[in-house]
Amino acid sequence: MFNNVRKQYPNAKLVLIGNDSYDIETKSESTWRLVQQKCIDYNLHSAVSYLGKIPYQEIQEYIKKGHICVFPTFAETLGMVTIEAMALQKPVVNSNIGWAQELIVDGESGYLVHPKNHNEFSDKIVSLLKDEDLCSIMSSAARTRVETIFNIEKIVEQNIDFYKTIIS
Q1: What is the pTM of this model?
Q2: 93 pairs with which residues across the strands?
Q3: Which sequence spans correspond to the domains of the chain?
Q4: What is the distance of C-alpha 20 from the center of its chain?
Q5: What does the pLDDT read at residue 77?
Q6: In contact, 63 and 85? CB cutoff 8 Å
Q7: Which of 49, 143, 152, 165, CA to CA, is 20 to 30 A from 64?
């Protein structure tokens, strides 16, 4: 994906944050080692950095520095970092698997793409890099969506109503 982006934006940088993990498809013990190999293959080593797991408090600072947040995951349950990126008004390109479909309206508050569709993922990233107005509109919609779905007053009311049905 990133190689495709770099073809159009040679100065683009990729910052990877989070635990390294086993790769189911290749049976590799380290996803980061797989990425490093691709970096060497495509001469991207100076454009890609891996921070590993960092303290939770630092995540927001990296999100604020970023232009676009990309989450091509197969395994996320409820991605708090996606929610935080949207709340911080960052355009998001996310996996279309599972919960993200409930949070992101594709093409409105972010993009949803299957993680195996590398060309579409990179096309969505490039479309955002090309169009600041699109980034601004999508970022605002993302913030509004998060505020609507995670409004604490609404959630409290929903929880109270739910518990009332159980106790009755």
Answers
A1: 0.87
A2: 70, 111
A3: 1-54, 56-168
A4: 16
A5: 62
A6: yes
A7: 152
**What six digits make up the tokens of 39?**
């970096």
State how far the Cα of 16 lies from the Cα of 62, in Å rounded to an integer.
10
| Residue numbers of the chain with a pLDDT score lower than 70 | 76-77
What is the model's pLDDT at position 108?
A: 97
**Residue holding tokens 């929880």?**
159
Do the beta carbons of residue 91 and residue 125 sit within 8 Å? no
Q: Hunting for tokens 């994906």 — which residue is that?
A: 1
In one-letter notation, the amino acid at residue 135 is C
**For residue 33, how far is the Cα from the chain centroid?**
21
CATH architecture of 56-168: 3-Layer(aba) Sandwich (3.40)
Number of CB atoms found within 10 A of residue 115's CB: 16
Alpha-carbon torsion angle 19, 10, 71, 138, nearest 10: 140
Q: Which helix (H) or strand (E) holds 93?
A: strand 92-95
Q: Tokens for 94, please give them.
A: 């996310």
Three-class SS of residue 110? strand
Q: 97-102 contacts: CB < 8 A, separation 24 or more?
A: 97/73, 100/71, 100/76, 102/149
Report the distance separating Cα 17 and Cα 54, nearest Å. Answer: 7
